[in-house]
Amino acid sequence: MDAVIKPLRGGKPSDEPTDFRAPELDPSDFLDAAVLPDQPRPTREEAEAAVKTLLAYIGENTGREGLIDTPRRVVEAYDELFQGYHQCPAEVLNRTFGETAGYDDFVLIRDMYFTSHCEHHVMPFYGKAHIAYTPVERVVGLSKLARLVDVFARRLQTQEHLTAQIAAAVDEVLKPRGVAVMVEAEHTCMSVRGIAKRGAMTFTTRFTGVFRDNPAEQARFLSMVRS
After folding, report:
1. How many CA atoms lie within 13 A of 89 on its CB side?
2. Degrees (nearest 5) of the Cα angle 23, 86, 33?
């Protein structure tokens, strides 16, 4: 969300312009698959050996019955949880429809549940994403926006980066008059370790175009998300 940062106490006034806008993301950061087909990667055997090493590090007996197949299971789970690295966000949004009968208001899809993993502790964070966009002549299938959320969520993330990537992809591919994204999530790296504040929610937003420039549109989006 657009913001002006002010000094906490005294000091010189900030040199930031009052109409500060966040820098645009590099398209390579959000339009392509994150893993190239020819990118060198460890073998499955090496990945399973790494899991076995971590189990031994915490003090486990990696040879006991309950853990014999754990390295294989963990690697298989990683293949599922992080499949977003091999998916292309631009391809998810590439089919649009022109039969809109002149519809000129925004389209909102809310309460799209997701699970992701923080890049700092590789622990889950989960919650809901809400996306609105104001189309220009063509609209995208509703399920495609849910798929887009999952593509980015199934990578190591920060919530801020996830929010910005979703908005940038919709903005770049669909070329709408504006995009609004809100993500709300609970982070287990905060709720089950460290400060251990269960139930604490983090909210992030990103606005482009008419949503960024028109506070009334922002307010209407937020009102409909919370209703």
Report:
1. 29
2. 30
Taking alpha carbons only, the member of 174, 118, 126, 115 closest to residue 150 is 115
Distance between CA atoms of residues 67 and 189, nearest Å:
25
Count the Cβ atoms, other than its own, within 10 Å of residue 121.
Answer: 14
Q: Letter for the amino acid at 117?
A: H
Residues marked as catalytic: 118-121, 159, 187, 189
Locate tokens 């754990």: which residue?
A: 70
Per the listing, tokens 């609970």 go with 186
Place of tokens 């995009």: 179
All residues at 6 or more sequence positions from 2 whose CB lies less than 8 Å from its CB, including other chains: 19, 20, 21, 22, 207, 212
SS3 139: strand
**What is residue 12's DSSP assignment?**
P
| Strands (DSSP E) found in the chain | 96-97, 107-118, 124-134, 139-140, 156-157, 178-187, 202-208
Give the whole-angstrom CA distance, residue 162 versus residue 153: 7
Q: Assign 101 to helix, strand or coil.
A: coil
pLDDT in tens, 170-210: 999 999 999 999 999 999 999 999 888 899 999 999 999 99
**pLDDT score recorded for residue 102:** 86
Q: How many residues does the chain have?
A: 227
pLDDT given at position 24: 72
Which stretches of the chain drop beneath a pLDDT of 70? 1-23, 28-29
Sole residue written with tokens 């690295």: 85
Token pair of 58, please?
């915490």
